[in-house]
């Protein structure tokens, strides 16, 4: 259909060009016959236009088609991005995860980590002490005080850091230099009502981050020793750990925010309390149900745009349909095939349901989806945790002494076998294999090798009794869509390759238009030169003719007189 239309356009343009050229030549002959001067500028314009028009029309047609292809591809990529972003936002925001509950949010708050399973969460926490950061302040200085060159050395149990101070620095300059060092210390300048200033320095929270400050040379009067609580600076706040008990087991943490106490739960301590805070969980069933329906709507919008733009032309006695602008696009075909396979793809190994089809999401004959809400509601009532797991990326192990510390979504989905875990005579981890490939050892952690299918996986082994474990990495719908989007739009991805192809076509069309314009400029110059030469010659011929006529008239008159 497209080729036929293009052919008609080219023929029409060619006919018009021939007519225009004939008219221009007729004008020249008429003018020459009349013996008057030529309007060469207008004639050149007509001839250039007649020659350029059919070639420019071909380029214009190609440009319009390519622009439409780029636009359609952009729409499809945007649809895929919207589908991915909406799911990612719900997952990262915890809207589709069972969330922990606390009996007193003024004491602590708790949130679910991505990939966690908290439907059976229970326990209690008593917050006995909050973590604090050591804060010290200097003596008061005049606001105009400047310091000689020197340095400040900060030392804690993890090491030391030295900050150099230039001569002539003010107290504000000293604070700026400390902050610029980014060594874990924050400095501020306090201005009193009298106008005098004090330097205040705060470290990180936790007893291990108690620090000492030693000033040298021009800053020797700025010092503090945390071990003896002595020096020219005064301790305003003493560094200390958070102290709490979880299910009557005492624990400490250097920070008031941590995620390593209860698997899958991030906790933030806010205040102390003698009363235990009870932990529980709350399913997000209504959010999960709505997410299924929203997914179907977003999927259908994407799939409909793909179908419209990849349609192949057809004709019958009653109707004719044109091909879509992306009918031959390999990248979009790849995306379409991937979407078709996703619906019945195994996305979870947690519980009753492992595919979208099992919870009521069916594929229609045209490739779009329909959500059977009756089947969906039954699935949510029967095994809500399994439906939740179907949408969220998860990772789990069959051995409680083996934990996955790599980020959720970082490892290719699949089931992996951890075997041959070995230790030395003192119980230190020495080696292991994952699907038969040796893993790297770092302390109590095991890291998948760079050539492993599970590259990116990091495991932490507790104790020295683990010999094997099954590692399950599930993408969920969210992970599958994200993986598809990443693959399609990455450098070398199918949609990126299509985009690059169309951009190259656009650049080539522009190059041809530039070449045609240059060619027509040369043609215009050549015609102008030819017409100028012709005008000069005609003018000469007319002068000669006029002279001859005068001579003949003279001869004729002379003969008559004789």
Written account of the structure:
The protein is α+β, with helices and mostly antiparallel strands. It has four domains: 1-96 and 284-392 and 476-562, no CATH class; 99-130 and 243-282, no CATH class; 133-240, Immunoglobulin-like (Sandwich), CATH 2.60.40; 394-474, no CATH class. It has nine helices and 30 strands. The chain has helices at residues 2-34, 40-92, 171-181, 285-310, 330-342, 373-382, 384-391, 476-489, 494-561; strands at 99-102, 108-112, 123-129, 133-137, 146-147, 150-156, 159-165, 169-170, 186-191, 197-205, 212-217, 234-237, 242-246, 249-253, 257-258, 265-269, 277-282, 314-315, 320-321, 361-363, 369-371, 394-397, 402-404, 414-423, 429-434, 437-438, 440-442, 445-447, 458-461, 469-474. The strands form nine sheets. Strands 1-17-3-13-14 form a five-stranded antiparallel beta sheet, with no helix packed on it. A hairpin with a 5-residue loop joins strand 24 and strand 25 (429-434). Helix 2 runs antiparallel to helix 9. It is flat, with a radius of gyration of 41 Å. The chain starts with a helix and ends with a helix. Mean pLDDT is 88; it is low at 1-14 and 29-36. Keywords: Bacterial flagellum, Cell projection, Cilium, Coiled coil, Flagellum, Secreted. Homopentamer.
């Amino acid at each position: 259909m497209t080729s036929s239309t293009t052919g008609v356009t080219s023929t029409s343009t060619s006919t018009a060009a021939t007519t225009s050229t004939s008219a221009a030549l007729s004008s020249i002959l008429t003018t020459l016959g009349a013996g008057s001067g030529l309007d060469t500028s207008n004639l050149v314009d007509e001839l250039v236009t007649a020659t350029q028009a059919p070639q420019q029309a071909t380029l214009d047609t190609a440009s319009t088609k390519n622009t439409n292809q780029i636009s359609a591809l952009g729409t499809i990529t945007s649809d895929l991005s919207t589908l991915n972003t909406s799911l990612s936002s719900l997952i990262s925001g915890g809207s589709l995860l069972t969330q922990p509950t606390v009996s007193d949010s003024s004491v602590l708050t708790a949130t679910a980590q991505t990939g966690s399973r908290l439907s059976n969460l229970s326990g209690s926490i008593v917050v006995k002490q909050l973590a604090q950061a050591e804060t010290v302040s200097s003596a008061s200085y005049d606001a105009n005080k400047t310091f000689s060159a020197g340095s400040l050395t900060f030392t804690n149990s993890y090491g030391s850091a030295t900050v150099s101070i230039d001569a002539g620095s003010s107290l504000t300059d000293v604070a700026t230099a400390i902050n610029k060092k980014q060594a874990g210390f924050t400095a501020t300048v306090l201005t009193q009502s009298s106008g005098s200033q004090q330097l205040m320095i705060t470290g990180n929270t936790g007893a291990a981050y108690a620090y000492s400050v030693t000033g040298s040379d021009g800053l020797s009067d700025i010092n503090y020793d945390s071990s003896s609580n002595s020096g020219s600076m005064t301790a305003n706040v003493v560094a200390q750990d958070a102290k709490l008990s979880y299910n009557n087991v005492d624990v400490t943490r250097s920070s008031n925010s941590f995620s390593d106490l209860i698997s899958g739960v991030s906790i933030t301590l806010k205040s102390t309390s003698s009363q235990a805070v009870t932990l529980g969980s709350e399913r997000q069933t209504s959010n999960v149900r709505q997410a299924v329906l929203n997914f179907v709507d977003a999927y259908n919008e994407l799939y409909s745009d793909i179908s419209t733009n990849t349609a192949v032309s057809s004709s019958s006695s009653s109707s004719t349909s044109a091909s879509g602008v992306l009918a031959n696009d390999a990248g979009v075909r790849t995306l379409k095939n991937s979407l078709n396979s996703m619906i019945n793809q195994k996305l979870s190994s947690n519980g009753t349901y492992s595919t979208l089809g099992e919870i009521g999401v069916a594929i229609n004959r045209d490739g779009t989806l329909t959500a059977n809400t009756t089947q969906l509601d039954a699935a949510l009532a029967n095994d809500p945790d399994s439906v939740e797991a179907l949408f969220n990326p998860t990772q789990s192990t069959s051995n409680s002494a083996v934990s996955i510390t790599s980020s959720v979504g970082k490892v290719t989905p699949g089931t992996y076998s951890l075997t041959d875990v070995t230790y030395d005579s003192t119980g230190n981890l020495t080696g292991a294999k994952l699907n038969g490939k040796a893993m790297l050892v770092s302390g109590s952690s095991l890291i998948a090798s760079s050539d492993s299918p599970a590259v990116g996986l990091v495991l932490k082994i507790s104790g020295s009794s683990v010999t094997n474990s099954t590692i399950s990495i599930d993408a969920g719908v969210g992970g599958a869509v994200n993986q598809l989007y990443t693959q399609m739009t990455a450098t070398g991805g199918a949609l990126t390759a299509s985009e690059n192809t169309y951009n190259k076509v656009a650049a080539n069309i522009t190059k041809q238009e530039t070449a045609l314009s240059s060619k027509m400029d040369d043609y215009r110059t050549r015609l102008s030169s030819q017409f100028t030469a012709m005008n000069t010659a005609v003018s000469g011929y007319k002068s000669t003719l006029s002279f001859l006529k005068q001579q003949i008239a003279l001869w004729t008159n002379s003969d008559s007189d004789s």
